[in-house]
Amino acid sequence: MVVIFSCPKCGKEVNESIMTPIEPALSTEENVTLLGGGAVRAEILNEALSFAPKLVAADGGAAKALALGHMPECVVGDFDSLDEKARAQIAPERLFHIPEQDSTDFEKALMCIAAPVILGVGFTGARIDHELAVYATLARFPDRRCVILGEEDLCFIAPPVFNLPTRPGDRVSLFPMGAVTGRSEGLRWPIEGISFAPDGRVGTSNIASGEQVTLCFDTPGMMVILSRAMLGTDLIARLLAAPDWG
After folding, report:
1. In sequence order, what are the beta bridge partners of 24?
2. pLDDT tens for residues 13-22?
3. What's the superkingdom here (predicted)?
4. Tens digits of per-residue pLDDT, 45-60?
5. Which stretches of 10-139 are assigned E, i.e. beta strand?
6. Which of 95, 64, 103, 55 is nearest to 79 (CA)?
7. Residue 142 exposed, middle or buried by CB count within 10 Å (0-12, 13-18, 19+)
8. Cα–Cα distance for residue pair 244/227, rounded to 1 Å
């Protein structure tokens, strides 16, 4: 669907593409691992599946899944990266083809999954433009509980209030995807009174001072970046318990 709106400053009409699937490709009460076509090791995929056992592939991620010995529950995308060899191994009812080119395969898949939490793997460490598009999509849909896993780090868009399980000395980096203000407890350098912006002040390399960090934000758009070692059932449970932006 394409929405046309006028720029409030110059009055120029702008086309904004919004992908709105009618029904989800997968609706489940279990957490979902979403696999992209980027670099991913079996160790990271298996770690994600231990917390999110349902596997969905975004387009070319299907070939990655098969190569690593996993059959995805479904494959979502425009299929421009899904080779015929991989496609032939997947039952047609598992293939959800969305041909429009106004959204990325990550966005298509994200919007087609109804699940408590999504763990995204295979979306980092390859093309920078593709990786940035993933983060931009997360910022546009802040109520989606989606955690992106990389080789070293994980990241997600912060809910309005979030209690983060930590140990003293854990890195808690904050990177604003827009203009954001908030408050914190349990950080070595509190964030209250700071106006964050991607072209201004950012909060990378902050440090937890105790066993919990509480973050509160006035508007959506703050990305929380942590060590991948902090992934666990406690972190996922607290994400699920956090309020939506609504």
Report:
1. none
2. 434 444 454 4
3. Bacteria
4. 999 999 999 999 999 9
5. 13-17, 26-27, 32-35, 54-58, 74-77, 95-97, 113-114, 118-121
6. 95
7. buried
8. 24
**Dist. CA 176–CA 196, nearest whole Å:** 6
Collect all residues with Cβ–Cβ distance below 8 Å to 170 and sequence separation of at least 6: 207, 208, 226, 227, 230
Q: How far is CA 103 from CA 2, 66, 195, in A?
A: 11, 25, 30
- Do 73 and 61 touch, CB atoms closer than 8 A? no
Question: Which phi and psi (to 5°) does residue 201 adopt?
Answer: -80, 130
Query: pTM of the full predicted structure?
Result: 0.89
Tokens (6 digits) for 96: 């959800």
Domains of the chain: 22-151 (3.40.50.10240), 155-226 (2.60.120.320)
Closest CA to 78 of 56, 58, 97: 97
Alpha carbons 133 and 107: distance in angstroms, whole number: 9
Q: How far apart are CA 165 and CA 116, in angstroms?
A: 19
- How far are the Cα atoms of 11, 26, 125, 184 from residue 216, in angstroms, in the given order? 35, 32, 30, 6
Structure-token pair, residue 219: 């508007």
CA pair distance 224, 214, nearest whole angstrom = 12
pLDDT tens for residues 214-223? 999 999 999 9
Average pLDDT over residues 231-236: 96
Token pair for residue 171? 């890195």
